[in-house]
Amino acid sequence: MQTASLTNQRVNLEAGASAGEQNLARLLSNKELRAGLTTTTSSLPMTSTAPGRYSTASAPVTVPGSYRVEFHLAGEHPSIGRFERTRSQTVHVAFARADFDSTAFSATRKRPKNGTPTLTLIVSPRDSYGNYLGPGYATRVAAIIDGKPSPAPEDLGDGRYAFAFDGDTPRSATLVLRVMGEPLMDGLLADVEPPPPLPRRPMWQYAIALLLVLLTLWLFRRARR
Question: Residue 100, exposed/middle/buried by CB under 10 A (0-12, 13-18, 19+)?
Answer without folding.
Answer: middle
